[in-house]
User: Which sequence fits this backbone?
């Protein structure tokens, strides 16, 4: 077991005890009757860390509205945006222990539980969202959604945010410009290797801490989508934004497996249908939301936008390509091949 996997198993005795009581109660070995009526609606707590105006924020709210419209009186959804309830790392633990019922967390965050999702972090593997959509809905879909079943988590679908770009104190038309800069990254070994490959210093940090870190100089640079850069106002504290499309930010909609399997069949079926409907709606809008965010950033005149030439892009791709080789065995050559095939 690696250190990341130990982060979930290393909960406090108090929390573990609480979880065991829940398990025993489900098994009927102890009673946890709190006096609640059996007619009370099923509660789905749904925390996430992005703004309500981001692709994920809009999708989460649409999911809530459709559930409470179609399953009125039977299911209630509480959405907690902008890290109000917990950060992404905590939400994965909370889901595993049944403290929340649904999350839509960055795919990068799950590499503590499965290496397969590291494919989404390989630099310059996916040229655009259309290719990612093809991969996520293709032959690898069920394998990806079930990749964490042994940890008690079940994937239901994927939501796009968008393609990633670099921001920092200087334009990054060449990887050498990144040398020595401190980059905020998500909790991902691939992203760490990616920044080291260009001579930067990777700093793993929760999303809700990034603005202040950029403002105070605790970190110099970061990578993100236009929607996140705009909604979290990173462009206000970063002088230069470089259009690279080097990576992808997307989310896995995941539930606690035990909670999901214990739902009445008709409710579970309806929730699955709503997730699929919202996923289609959200993923179709992700590209336009990011384009609108970029236009607003340009209109603000707070940052300078640098666009890569074909030659500059090729240098970036060649510089980062060794990261693929470093993680090929962990991810699985079959997964990477399926991702590459989506480009054809």
Assistant:
């Amino acid at each position: 077991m690696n250190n990341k996997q130990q982060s979930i198993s290393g909960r406090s005795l108090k929390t573990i005890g609480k979880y065991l009581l829940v398990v025993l109660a489900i098994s009927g070995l102890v009673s946890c009757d709190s006096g609640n009526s059996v007619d009370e609606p099923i509660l789905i707590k749904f925390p996430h860390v992005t703004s309500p105006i981001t692709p994920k924020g809009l999708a989460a709210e649409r999911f809530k509205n459709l559930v409470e419209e179609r399953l009125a009186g039977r299911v209630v959804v509480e959405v907690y945006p902008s890290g109000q309830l917990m950060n992404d790392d905590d939400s994965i633990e909370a889901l595993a222990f049944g403290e929340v019922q649904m999350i839509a967390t960055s795919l990068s965050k799950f590499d503590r539980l499965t290496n397969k999702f590291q494919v989404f972090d390989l630099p310059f593997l996916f040229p655009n969202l259309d290719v990612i959509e093809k991969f996520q809905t293709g032959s690898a879909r069920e394998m990806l959604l079930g990749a964490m079943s042994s940890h008690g988590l079940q994937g239901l679908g994927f939501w796009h945010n968008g393609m990633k770009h670099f921001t920092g104190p200087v334009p990054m038309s060449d990887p050498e410009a990144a040398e020595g800069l401190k980059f905020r990254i998500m909790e991902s070994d691939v992203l760490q290797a990616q920044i080291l490959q260009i001579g930067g210093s990777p700093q793993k940090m929760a999303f809700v801490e990034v603005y202040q870190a950029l403002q105070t100089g605790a970190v110099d640079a970061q990578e993100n989508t236009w929607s996140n850069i705009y909604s979290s106002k990173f462009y206000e504290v970063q002088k230069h934004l470089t259009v690279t499309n080097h990576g992808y930010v997307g989310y896995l909609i995941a539930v606690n497996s035990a909670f999901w399997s214990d739902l009445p069949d008709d409710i579970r079926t309806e929730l699955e249908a709503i997730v699929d409907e919202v996923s289609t709606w959200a993923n179709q809008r992700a590209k336009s939301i990011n384009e609108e965010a970029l236009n607003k950033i340009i209109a603000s005149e707070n940052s300078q936008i640098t666009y890569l030439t074909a030659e500059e892009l090729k240098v970036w791709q060649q510089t980062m390509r060794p990261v693929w080789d470093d993680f090929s065995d962990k991810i699985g050559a079959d997964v990477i091949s399926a991702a590459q095939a989506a480009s054809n």
User: Anything to note?
Assistant: The chain has one domain: 41-341. The longest strand covers residues 240-256. DSSP finds 14 helices and nine strands in the chain.
